[in-house]
Automatic annotation (TrEMBL):
Entries under InterPro entries matching the protein: Indolamine_dOase, Trp/Indoleamine_2_3_dOase-like
Keyword terms: Heme, Iron, Metal-binding, Tryptophan catabolism
Residue numbers binding heme b: 320
GO BP: any one term: 'de novo' NAD+ biosynthetic process from L-tryptophan
Family (UniProt): Belongs to the indoleamine 2,3-dioxygenase family.
One GO cellular component term: cytoplasm
Matches recorded under Pfam families: IDO
Entry protein name: Indoleamine 2,3-dioxygenase 1
GO molecular function per UniProt: heme binding; indoleamine 2,3-dioxygenase activity; L-tryptophan 2,3-dioxygenase activity; metal ion binding
Domain of life: Eukaryota
Length: 387
């Protein structure tokens, strides 16, 4: 099972095992699932584009619920990525045929997601249980075999480790409303533990997973036939679209806005998240500031709990930075042209030609902004003396 991929997969929480993922659509959509299920083979034998050209334009109206829509988005997103990149880096498709573009667009509108493969597709919606003991498998895969699978499954395990932290964040907000200092502290401890678990889980990412998570150049974007004559530029799936980390940033009042555009990039990534996730981040961001609350209540326990939480997020980002260095920046460790195409049709941060320096500046900037949110002894003491 997943044991081949990861050293010691953590057991799945019970509530997770009880969720059965959607893997089927009404029979009318069989052609989508046939293509998506055989994607690796169809890309490797270069048959996918021809089959897409023969595909009928299906009406997405028979998709009746959220889960079917998410599965359809995932399938159409995979087929789209395969279609665009079938011939490799140097010959990406510029026009998405109507049989793909039209239903993908409609499904995306109903979900409030962009018509491109997102992190919410490849990581959050692309798993199924392989056996009752909780081993997971992907629903759809790209060429790139175990690397591709390992990358998605480990990302999913990291997200699962974040779930108790999201609950902790909500507990903090609730406790703050009624000035329950112990409640805030308990919630923060939960978030800290979750961030530590995320980092531990992240370590399951093997160096042998070779992939290109950055976006290759498709500077002119993609024309969605029948929908827009102008090419549309969208970002590729990236863990920067993970809503969990942005929720923690919002809770801990970590601000990334500055002249380098980091904040704008991270805010833009919210457009690639499911609307309910985006909404939660926005609600947390406009809530009264937890940091100011803590500064105004001279409780050293609370200060410590807050700082432990921020430090755990700094640690997670430092670990991520090191991983990125090993995967992307270190020369000679470039992924093969047709690795795992977790790619978009626009550029996010151009790592090519700069030796990855702009990427490192970005990631370090994000980490440093996190660090700056720590409450220093001087700040807490000066507030105390004001009181
Ligand atoms: C080998 C594994 C990974 C690599 C090579 C990698 C690479 C990158 C790159 C290149 C970026 C810059 C933004 C972009 O180009 O889209 C980024 C950002 C980001 N990644 Fe990863 N990533 C990996 C795994 C993960 C995992 C498992 C997570 C956890 C969910 C994660 C969370 C993030 C976040 C939150 C950002 C936005 C910057 C921030 O908020 O700190 N990454 N990553």
């Amino acid at each position: 099972g997943n044991r081949e991929l990861v050293d010691a997969p953590p057991p799945l929480p019970r509530h997770f095992v009880l969720i059965v993922s959607q893997t089927n659509l009404p029979d009318y959509y069989r052609v989508w699932l046939d293509l998506a299920n055989n994607l690796t083979h169809l890309i490797e034998t270069r048959k996918l584009r021809d089959l897409v050209h023969k595909m009928p334009v299906l009406d997405p109206h028979l998709l009746s619920n959220h889960r079917e829509l998410r599965l359809a988005h995932l399938a159409l997103g995979f087929i789209t990525m395969g279609y665009v990149w079938q011939e490799g880096h140097h010959a990406p498709a510029q026009i998405l045929p109507k049989a793909l573009a039209w239903p993908f667009w409609q499904v995306s509108c109903r979900l409030g997601l962009p018509p491109i493969l997102t992190y919410a597709d490849t990581v959050l919606a692309n798993w199924k249980l392989k056996d009752p003991s909780g081993n997971m498998d992907l629903i759809f895969s790209f060429p790139g075999g175990e690397s591709c699978k390992g990358f998605f499954i480990v990302s999913l395990l990291v997200e699962m480790a974040a779930s108790s932290g999201i609950r902790g964040a909500l507990e903090v907000m609730r406790a703050m409303k009624i000035s329950d200092l112990i409640g805030i502290q308990k919630g923060l401890v939960k978030v800290t533990q979750s961030l530590k678990k995320m980092k531990e889980t992240f370590k399951l990412m093997h160096r042998k997973f070779k992939l290109t998570p950055d976006n290759p150049m498709l500077p002119r974007g993609l024309v969605y036939e029948g929908l827009s004559d102008e090419p549309i530029l969208l970002s590729g799936g990236s863990a920067a679209q993970s809503s969990a980390i942005q929720c923690f940033d919002a809770l801990l009042c970590i601000r990334h806005e500055d002249e380098t555009g980091k904040g704008a990039f991270l805010t833009r990534m919210r457009d690639y998240m499911p609307p309910a996730h985006r909404q939660l981040i926005e609600t947390l961001s406009v809530s009264p500031s937890l940091r100011d609350f803590i500064l105004s209540h001279s409780s050293s326990d609370l200060c410590q709990a807050f700082n432990a939480c921020v430090s755990a997020l700094v640690d997670l980002r430092s670990y991520h930075l090191n991983t990125v260095t090993k995967y992307i920046i270190v020369p000679g460790n470039q992924a093969p042209a047709m690795g795992c195409p977790l790619r978009g049709v626009g550029t996010v941060l151009n790592t090519r030609g700069t030796g990855g320096s702009s990427l490192m500046v970005f990631l370090k900037g994000v980490r440093n902004a996190t660090q700056k949110t720590l409450i220093s002894e001087r700040q807490s003491v000066s507030r105390e003396s004001e009181m």
